[in-house]
What we know:
This protein is mainly α. Helices cover 82% and strands 0% of the residues. The longest helix has 33 residues.
Amino acid sequence: MKEMVRARAISVMTLLWMVLWLPFAITAHLAILFEPPHHSVAWSQVLRAVRYGVLTAGLWGPGSGVVFAALLATAERGGAIGQLVVRRVILWGAISGASLPVLLLVWDAVQIGITMVVDWRNVTVVGLGAAYGALIAAGLVLLAQRAPAA
């Protein structure tokens, strides 16, 4: 029974993180689309950027959600999220948000060499992922603390 509760919690966290990553991923792809020197952009390009944003959120969100749920389950020993120390949960969120881009950068480093991987765009993606993951984690903790006890 305990395993079923844990599996349900991980599933809910994964789905929640996927939904919460949608605005970030879509905005990021639109920002890339409108990055100079693009002067005019067709609607088909905008729709493609939105599709890529949804795809990104569909990968990055659940991946981060699973990492976040695993970190909470391991490090916090099953405590209710509303009763945890906010700073630690924010740290777990930041690690979770940065986990997928770091994993992909390590993969690229193994494949093509470290000099091609470390540039300002990749560092920015990792930093934004960590910041957004921390924001999601903080929001979840604050929301859980405001919820009435069941």
